[in-house]
Design goal:
This protein has 307 residues and is an alpha/beta fold. The chain has helices spanning 14-25, 40-46, 64-71, 110-127, 139-149, 164-171, 173-193, 214-232, 238-243, 278-292; strands at residues 6-10, 30-34, 51-55, 81-86, 102-106, 154-162, 199-204, 207-213, 245-249, 255-259, 262-269, 299-302. The protein has two domains: 6-127, Response regulator (Rossmann fold, 3-Layer(aba) Sandwich), CATH 3.40.50; 139-302, Alpha-Beta Plaits (2-Layer Sandwich), CATH 3.30.70.270. It has ten helices and twelve strands. A five-stranded parallel sheet has the order 2-1-3-4-5, with helices on one face. Helix 6 crosses helix 7 (173-193) and helix 7 (173-193) runs antiparallel to helix 8 (214-232).
Length: 307
């Protein structure tokens, strides 16, 4: 996690928000203030913060629903939440219903707040293997999630971005990183829309994994592809979009026609006899993705074999 953090501050006390923002920004961090908790989820879903600070001092405000919504999500649930809590009320809080990660009693000292922010940042680095670019769970979490679905009516879906390397080499790492972040948001949002919980992870580079119920797999794949195609088309000039390709160096260093960014998705239902360990899932997915990559448009392929 980077040293300069993006911190969402949720507080109805405008004076406290102003003072907090000044002090936190003096440490090089960016603060986004919300005086209305109803606006927070939309912001978090579109552009996640590194840390969330919530001021609980107004007893009529119930943040439990907001916190639970964030914490139950596989993508956003890893964001540390620090509560600012009146010293006379924190003993009465049912922590199982309010799963924040840390709290400070009001009134507080700023040095203590900065220490808690630093500890939250370090804790998330130690505990989670999340990809630093997308913040999605990484390989350890992915393997565990896949192993937990063996034999269940779930589909493990491997996704990668076709023609990403030449795009990254031609247009620069900054634009390439934004494509990766954009793809991560599209995947996690599509998985969340099923309402089934699900899972989304980032293997690395342009390779992702998501897990949904079998009956949701095709819908989620179509949603991801449709949303990706809409946004990806804006990455190229009209002339390039019209032609459907641009001239750049391929993996061998030769100038060639490079087609626009598309997706290849391999869908592996886990409740078939042939799926008996983690390695078999990856093996089948690699074969399916190889077939999907033969097409110039985005494609998902489902493993239909029962043996």
């Amino acid at each position: 996690m980077k040293n300069n953090l993006r911190i969402a501050l949720i507080s109805k006390d405008c004076e406290l928000s102003s003072q907090l923002s000044i002090h936190i920004e003096s440490k090089g961090h960016q603060v986004i203030v919300f005086n209305n908790e109803s606006l927070v989820l939309g912001y978090i879903y579109s552009d996640p913060s590194d840390i969330i600070i919530i001021n609980f001092q107004f007893s009529e405000t119930n943040f439990h629903g907001l916190i639970s919504e964030i914490k139950k999500d596989c993508y956003f649930g890893t964001i540390p939440i620090i509560g600012l809590i009146d010293e006379n009320t924190h003993n009465n809080i049912e922590w199982k219903d309010c799963p924040i990660d840390d709290f400070i009693t009001l009134p507080f000292k700023y040095n203590e707040l900065f220490s808690r922010i630093s500890l939250a940042k370090n804790r998330i680095q130690r505990i989670f293997d999340n990809n630093p670019l997308t913040k999605l769970p990484g390989n350890t979490s992915i393997q565990k999630a896949i192993e937990n679905t063996i034999g269940a009516p779930m589909s493990v879906c491997y996704l990668d971005i076709n023609n990403f390397k030449p795009y990254n080499d031609t247009f620069g790492f900054t634009r390439g990183d934004e494509v990766i972040r954009m793809t991560a948001r599209i995947i996690s949002n599509a998985v969340r829309q099923t309402g089934d919980g699900g899972f989304a992870g980032h293997i690395g580079g342009d390779d992702f994994v998501f897990i949904v119920k079998n009956e949701s797999a095709e819908f989620v794949c179509k949603t991801i592809i449709n949303n990706f195609n809409i946004i990806a088309s804006d990455l190229f000039e009209e002339e390039v979009k019209h032609k459907g390709f641009y001239i750049a160096k391929d993996r061998q260093g030769n100038e060639n026609k490079i087609y626009l960014l598309t997706l290849a998705i391999a869908v592996v239902p886990m409740n078939t006899p042939q799926i008996n360990h983690y390695g078999k899932v990856a093996e089948i997915a690699a074969e399916l993705k190889k077939y999907a990559k033969k097409f110039t448009e985005s494609k998902y392929v489902i493993n239909r074999r029962k043996r």
